[in-house]
Prior knowledge:
About 60% of the residues lie in helices and about 0% in strands. By secondary structure, it is an all-alpha fold. Helix 2 (about 35-45) crosses helix 4 and helix 3 runs antiparallel to helix 4. The protein has two domains: about 1-30; about 30-100, Orthogonal Bundle (Helix Hairpins).
Amino acid sequence: MLRALVLIAALCFFCRWAFGKWPWEYLAPAPTRAQAVFRARKLLGVEAGASREEVIAAHRRLTTLVHPDRGGTNAAMQEVNAARDLLLDELPGGRDGAGG
Length: 100
């Protein structure tokens, strides 16, 4: 019994080392688009009814903090850009700003 527990623990640590996730993290459901939009709004600090201009202004404010030229990282910049793109896509006119 103890041998089985040690083997399971070793496999869990191997999974974490090799794939970067614990085995039970693969059992979690994939995030929905609504959850992604919520996280994007939270990251940029905008309300649910934010306009295109508000999203762009929040993106500009945040990029001044996380841009790689100012001590930030590429990963943080990519995350901020993805949040902006997602929120702009959620607006009625989409990214091009055309009404519709």
